[in-house]
Structures are given as C-alpha cells and as structure tokens.
Amino acid sequence: MTSFDHTKYRAFEPVAIENRTWPDQEITSAPIWSSVDLRDGNQALVEPMTVEQKKQFFALLVDVGFKEIEVGFPAASQLDFDFVRWLIEENQVPDDVYIQVLTQARPELIERTYESLKGAKKAIVHVYNSTSKTQREQVFRLGKDGIKEIAVKGAQCVKEHAAKHPETEWVFQYSPESFTGTETDFAIEVVDAVIDVWQPTPDNKAIINLPATVEVATPNRFADQIEYFCRNVKQRDSMIISLHTHNDRGCGVAAAELGLMAGADRIEGTLLGNGERTGNMDVVTMAMNMYSQGIDPELALGDMDRIISVVQACTLLQVHPRHPYAGELVFTAFSGSHQDAIKKCLANQTDDKPWDVAYLPIDPRDVGRSYQEVIRVNSQSGKGGVAYTLEQEYGLALPRWLQVEFSPIVQQFAEQDGGVVNAESMKGLFESRFMTGDKPYQLGKYDHAKDDVDTVHAELNSDSGVINITGTGNGALSAFSEALGKHFGMRVDIIQYQEHALTVGSDSQAIAYVQANIDGDRFNGVAIDSDIVSASVQALMATVNQKILQNTDANVA
Ligand code: KIV
Ligand code: ZN
C-alpha cells in the first residue's frame, strides 16, 4: 500500500475501435517533419529566445533539413512578429522551406498573423482551438456546437485572408487542441466542419494536426485514436494527418511512432525534446530510431555536437548525459562485461557488414562521436576497458594474463579516487607498477652469445656501483634469468612472455611483457626498447627489482 490516493484519478477512456490494423504496420519511410522548436519549444522556456537566438536556431533547422518550420506565434508576441518579418524581408527562407505560424482561431489574431506573413513565398497558417471536454466545460463554458463554431469561423477567416494574398503559396493547418482529451467522434466532427470550409483536394491538401497536448494514456491508445480518426474523417485523401505529441508520460516518441503506424503522414516535434512541461516529442530520437532500423530519416543529424551546442545556447537547457543518441555518456560502457563485448564486436566490424555491435545500437561515428568515448574505466570496469584504453591511446596490446593482473589495480585506484580513470593516469599506474627495470638495478651493457647454449654477460648499474653477472640458458631471456638468480640467490622462473612492435607514438620500438615466478611469488615486468632482446631482458630485470624491493620492505618492516 502506498500513501497515494489512487482513487483520485480515472483511467483514460479508450476509443471503441474494432480490428485495429496499426500493430501490423511497419514504419518504412520518413514522415514529413515539422520543427516546432521556435514556437512550442520557445513558449516553454524560462527565458524565451531572443531574435538573435531564433536566427541561430532557424539556421540550424534549415541545415538539418526541415522543410516546414513553425517560426512563432506572431499575433501573441512582438518578438515573434519581428522575427517573421526579418525572415521574409531579409530573404532568409530557402525556396523549398515553408515557414509555419500559429494563431488561435480568433479573427483579430488571424488578421495580425497575416500581417506578419506579408510577402512570404510559402507559408503554413496553423489555426487551433481547444476541443476537449475539460476545456469546453471549464475554460470556455461552451457546448460542442459553440466549440465547433469557433473552429469554423477561424477556418473561414484564415481562408479569406489568404485569398487577399495570392502571391503567397498558402497551406492551411488546423489543430483540435487537446485532441487526446477530446471524444474522438467530436474531434472528427469539428475537423469535418473545418474541411468543409477549406475544401482541400488530394492535390492541394490541408494539414490536420492531432495533438497529444497532454499525453494521457499509453501510446497504443493514442494509435487507436489516430487509426479511428483516419478511418472515419471525411476526405482523408485531401488531408495530411500530422501528429504533435508531448511527453507527459515519457512516451512522446513511442506515441508518435505508433501514430505513424496508425496512418499519420507528418510529425511535429523539437530537437532534443524541449517543450511544455516534460517536453515535445524529440525529433532527434525518433529520426535516429528510424535510422537505426535502416530507414533514411531524411534529416541530417550527423553533427550532433553542433545540434547540442545550438540547442543549449538558445534554450539555456542542458542536454542530459543519457539523452538517447546525443548524451555525453550514451556511447560509453562502464561495466566490464559490456566493455569486453564491445571491444570484441568492434574488432569484427567492417564497413561492408551491417552494424552488429553489442550494446551499441548505432555506430557512434555516425553522430560525430569516436570510439575512444565508448569505453571509460571506473571501479565497475573490467579488463576489457583497461586493455582497450591502453591499446587505443598508447598502442599497448596487453596480453590477457597481464590484463588480469592490471585491471584490479586500476579498479582499486578508481575506488580510492572515486571516479573515472583517464588514459594518462592509467598509463602512469601501469608504468609505476610494471616498468620497474631501472631501480634498484638497471641493465647496462650486455652481451648475448649464441652457441649450443645462449650465454649472457651483463652489467647491472645501481646506486652502489656496477655488478657483472653471467648466465647460460636456452635463449637470452633464460640465460639472463639464470644470471640474475645466481647473483641474487633467487629462483627465477619465467612463466609468461610476450612482445610486439609499438605502433603508437614511437618508431621501431618494441615492448616486452614478462611474468616470472621468483621464489614462489609472481611478478610482472614490462620494458620498451628499440631492440626486442634488450626489451625482454629489461622486462625480466623489472620483475627481479620488484622482488628485491619487496624483500627490502619486508626487512625494514
Ligand atoms: O500541444 C499542442 O496542442 C499545441 C497546439 C497549439 C498544436 O502546441
Ligand atoms: Zn504543443
């Protein structure tokens, strides 16, 4: 039991639809997109955009490829009016772009709206009135007929003004605002009446925009409303059915997607979802969802950082780090198993194969992100992330046995440090732990002779002078290990050895990784040198130095 009184609320009353077909439909092509960033998005801002910000945002929307852009509510805002005038007078609207403006269905506002649009080449006049039961009864205190009359008068007024300016290519748009809270049959009745006034044709369609002004039900209920509407409205073939969803229940994108399957043609929304309350439908997410299914969204979203930067600069709202496709962390895996899987899949991925990488629904490069951002290392990370970072940044291809040794060291550091371990600190940890071939002893001159057995003569430099050691074995490394063992009175067994050429940051350098058991304890040593044999003996020296230091510490303690 919760302390909430759930009886305070009623369940949404679904439309009675039989044999719905939308669940079997697929989205196979991009809808007509309309951006409402500069109107609905702008109306929801604590600080509405300045003209300068609107100009910057408009340029972005054009570059992204919107052909229909709602630029404001000019009858309600002088700033919006001025912005529309600037667009027209300064010839800022590309020939293939419709500017769209919103007006309430009130004659004086419609008149002012047309004033703002004088001289426009192409314009969508978007007229709306609220049709929901709640608004009819409590806000307008009108019956259904009164509400329908507002819509019809608004439609007539829109048509009359347009006729006075034949130089503009007009498109009419009507929204029964709060459509989701309106009995669907009544919404149809109002739209039919508006259509009777406008008399669109299949060649000259009107836009009928069905808003989920407030998202009040699960997306399937919205899809039912859309399919029912499309089936029962008159002259369906003379209208473009548009959807305008908000995100009150967090399903604005899902509702638009299902609505599209239910018969809609056009989608209104904002870039990254700014809008009233929880926001408008996020066009970036919906378009990228299509893209990730192999459908061309017909919007250029590849420069995600520019999109984010303009949206943030104009709305003064931050993009959440986990925002789908755009957030700073959405191509980052922290968990070790995810990192391992991503690393393996990325290694298999080639440009001629469809994208198939675990945990990454799209290729981060498509939105201007890089693989480096895919993997970060924190206390939750496993060896995959550590190995990936060292390889990407420094060309160190750690053998698996060394990954196993090193990743707990990084995790421990992350736990103490409380955050993400960047590549530089990781390299520092690696060097201080394994590249210990210079203290207390450092390899000086050495000579390697090959005969039946390999013989190594080496000088070891230390603070207390130079020591000469000699050993034999099967190969330089084993000869050197014997020499070290004899001199220091230790048993030195090499358990693992690996080497490779370094490709990052150094020409013709090689790296050697050695794991040795010294008197029953395992040590790992690493060294880089232009000569691979020299690198390998230095790596072994590193393990012996660790043992000597361990003994010294034990004696001191
Ligand atoms: O959310 C809404 O209903 C609107 C309309 C004006 C279309 O923004
Ligand atoms: Zn809206």
From TrEMBL:
Reaction catalysis annotation: 3-methyl-2-oxobutanoate + acetyl-CoA + H2O = (2S)-2-isopropylmalate + CoA + H(+)
Family matches, as InterPro entries: 2-isopropylmalate_synth_dimer, AIPM/Hcit_synth_CS, Aldolase_TIM, IPM_Synthase, LeuA-like_post-cat, LeuA_allosteric_dom_sf, LeuA_N_DRE-TIM, PYR_CT
Listed GO MF terms: 2-isopropylmalate synthase activity; acetyl-CoA C-acetyltransferase activity; magnesium ion binding
UniProt cross-references to CDD domains, sorted A to Z: DRE_TIM_LeuA
Keyword annotations of the record: Acyltransferase, Amino-acid biosynthesis, Branched-chain amino acid biosynthesis, Cytoplasm, Leucine biosynthesis, Magnesium, Metal-binding, Transferase
Binding site for Mg(2+): D40, H244, H246, N280
Localization per record: Cytoplasm
Protein name: 2-isopropylmalate synthase
Gene assigned in the entry: leuA
